[in-house]
Amino acid sequence: MSKVLVVEDSLTDKEILTLCLRSSGITVLTAKTAGEAFEQIKQHHFDVIILDVVLPDRSGFEICRELKDDESTKQVPVIICSTKGTEMDKFWGMKQGADAYLPKPIDQEELMKTVQQLVNANP
Question: Most buried among 20, 37, 46, 84, by the most CB within 10 A?
């Protein structure tokens, strides 16, 4: 069974992402801040990490860059999920090492398709 970390400070968005993933049998853990996210990452192995960009303590772009620079987490696929949906935002997210960039409001079918592709590509 796949395990996904959702790093999202909006309760509504976190619930939507969590319910969507869990309905497909995926184990979901959540964090509201970068600090909480890194604590979870130390304790668990994740198949995918979903990051919001605007978080209380650090940006999702910074977190993504740090994850991709670290030997122990650089293989974990990262999906940036943000209201910042311009082509420049997507370009910047991918430059930081994101494996996918999904705009909010989230398209649940697209989310599940992206998660499945990343999990299958990184067994």
Answer: 37
